[in-house]
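User: Hi! I'm working on a homework problem where we have to compare a predicted structure to a textbook description. Could you give me the structure for the chain below?
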Amino acid sequence: MSVEVLRESACDCMHEIIIKGMEPVAKQELVESLLSVLEKSGVLQLQEDEDADFLAKLAKLMGAAGTQLLNSYNKLTKSGDTEAAAKCLCAAEEKLPYLFK
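Assistant: Happy to help. Predicted structure tokens:
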């Protein structure tokens, strides 16, 4: 995502990876690892002059990440795995500042 001509396509690719069907715990781990890479690389530290198209793609990616974490939380709650459900909910709550940006 550091290459300007590729970053919109990279967002789309990561979005598709995040929304693919997986078991809830594996999904939570995948989302957390992908978003951790984005956080560490500084992609989520947005500048004032960012391209609007990139911001739209990044917003779509972050929205999908939050939705998938909440879906995993719901599935784990229904299955009775409260410990894993709590981890998913905590992960979703930690991403709220990025979602509100």
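For your comparison, note the following. The two ends are 18 Å apart (CA to CA). The chain has a mean pLDDT of 88. Good luck with the assignment!
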